[in-house]
């Protein structure tokens, strides 16, 4: 989460603009995405439903030793489906913030979602999803919810 305005900043100062971190789940309705792609339409419609980006509680930047060494886990009905580490990100956080700040002004409260570990798959109504963000095997943040189908 961005803590202070960032416009055209360098990688060297990018982390000075971070207020904290959280765990987010960026859901996509693949069925709608496939239809939109097939019809040549924007597929952002598949990402914008209410509740499609659940967030954990926020963690102060001071509580995180190294943002490039945090473990991310997602369980579906208590079965581990995703298990990754921020050290495996293609681009490090300062690069992401610097690059984004050259495209758009980042404001306090803005969130940057950085990608997902391997293991993306379908979810179904009534399944329980639980996400964890860990540092040295200690849970820093988590979320839990049941999936619902929109009529």
Write up this protein.
Helix content is 16%, strand content 23%. With 151 residues, it is an alpha+beta fold. The chain has a single domain, classed as Fumarylacetoacetate hydrolase, domain 2 (Alpha-Beta Complex). The protein has a four-stranded antiparallel sheet with strand order 4-3-5-6, with no helix packed on it. A hairpin with a 2-residue loop joins strand 3 and strand 4. The two termini are 33 Å apart. The model has no long low-confidence stretch (mean pLDDT 94).
Key terms for this structure?
151 residues, Fumarylacetoacetate hydrolase, domain 2, alpha+beta, 6 strands, two-stranded antiparallel sheet, globular
Question: Strands, helices and their partners?
Answer:
Blueprint (H helix, E strand, L loop, with lengths): L10 H4 L5 E2 L8 H9 L20 E2 L10 E6 L2 E7 L7 H11 L24 E8 L2 E9 L5
Antiparallel strand pairs: 1-2, 3-4, 3-5, 5-6
Short description:
By secondary structure, the protein is α+β, with helices and mostly antiparallel strands. The protein is 16% helix and 23% strand. The protein has three helices and six strands.
Largest sheet: 4 strands, antiparallel
**CATH fold description:** Fumarylacetoacetate hydrolase, domain 2
Helix segment tally: 3
DSSP strand tally: 6
Instruction: Outline the low-pLDDT stretches.
Output: none
């Amino acid at each position: 989460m961005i803590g202070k305005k960032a416009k055209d900043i360098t990688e060297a100062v990018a982390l000075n603009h971070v207020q904290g971190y959280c765990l987010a789940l960026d859901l996509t309705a693949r069925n709608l995405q496939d239809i939109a792609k097939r019809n040549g339409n924007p597929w952002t419609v598949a990402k914008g439903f209410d509740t499609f980006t659940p967030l954990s509680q926020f963690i102060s930047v001071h509580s995180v030793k190294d943002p490039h060494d945090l473990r991310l886990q997602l369980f579906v009905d208590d079965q581990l489906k995703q298990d990754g580490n921020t050290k495996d990100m293609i681009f490090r956080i300062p690069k992401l913030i610097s690059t984004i700040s050259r495209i758009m002004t980042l404001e306090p409260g803005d969130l940057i979602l950085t990608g997902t570990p391997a293991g993306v798959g379908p979810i179904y109504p009534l399944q329980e999803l639980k996400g964890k963000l860990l540092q040295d095997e200690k849970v820093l943040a988590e979320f839990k919810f049941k999936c619902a189908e929109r009529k």
